[in-house]
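Run log, item B.
One chain of 405 residues. Sequence copied directly from the ordering sheet:
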Amino acid sequence: MDNQHSNEPSQTNAIDTVGVGTQAVWGGETEGHPYRATQTPIVASAAYGYEDIDEWYDVALGKAPGFIYSRMSNPTVEVLEAKLCQLERAESAVAFSTGMAVISSVLYTFLSHGMRVVSTKDSYGGTNKIFEEFLPKMGVEVILCETQDHEAIEAEIAKGCDLLYLETPTNPTLKVLDIKRLAAAAKAQGAIVVADNTFATPLNQSPLTLGVDVVLHSATKFLSGHADAMGGVACGAESLMSQVRHYREINGASLDPFSAYLIIRGIKTLALRMRQQQASAMALAEYLQTEPLVEAVNYPGLPTHTGHEIAKAQMKGFGAIVSFVLKGGMETVTKLLPKLQFAHCAGNLGAVETIYGPARTTSHVENTLEERLALGISEGLVRISVGIEDTEDLVADLKQAFASL
């Protein structure tokens, strides 16, 4: 791509008619690369030179294609943005340096003093901190509803709503929201609808087709898939993304080209990875239901999950994250996790390796114990980010860990 201010996908062509796995490989890369390279080059240049001052000025104003300064746009980053446009069926996309950078930037772009945002109590801890701590300082009214009480959410939206923020499935409780239903309620009030699609990935869920205006991803997670790059991406209509892009240009949380390259590389195997990860996630969830030391298992693929029917309706697959609650709380957690042989205990998810961790050191490390309990997050809750290892080995590893307690 070679356009500083737009990464809109081209008109209908072959890439629009193939499967999402093929789009993950070829999206944004069907026109070829410089020097006949088969892979996206890393363009590590801060600035781009022009001999013709008038041409330079036209590019700077967005009247002509090109690049000026990599805080504003970069050829490698634009390939990533174009690939996400393809996967999320979006007109435009804007990449950021981290997942929290894209979440905070989108919220700060569209919210200001006197506005009202409606969301839910279940959301990633960093997102919750923005709702509880930062937005109120800006004079934004924040309403956090019980997550699966759709009637209560609709009632608050009806009282006035400038932005509806959804995260589904939620981190780390795996609760599921009816996107189409809630988006319709928000649109009736003229609100912008934002959805975090990190857990589902574009393979399993397409929020823009369900009424959402802006889709967010922590690209650090499943999109990258290898725990070696950080990034975030927002997708939506160009009329909205131009505002988000302007905010990024001035506030500076741009994605660097090397991280963009790594995320592009990771996306190409996303479909393969998720196929294995989801199969193992279901197997682990089913086993955990039989374990006496487990109080509850959270996975949308289980028929017993409270959001299972909604998930079946709006998702193509149930994702690769499972969480469960251990009897005995943190004392049992600290005994179980060190017994695992094929897992990292780390504050990340979406990698090829399986990762375990309690909420207090992963998703909600920013929150106090009291805040976590108020959000309904038990100290005994453990999140599993299921990797690509053989399913039988992951189940056997968890079984031997429980057996050793």
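Observations after the first pass:
- Residues 352 and 388 are 5 Å apart (CA to CA).
- Confidence is low (pLDDT under 50) at residues 1-6.
Flagged for discussion on Thursday.
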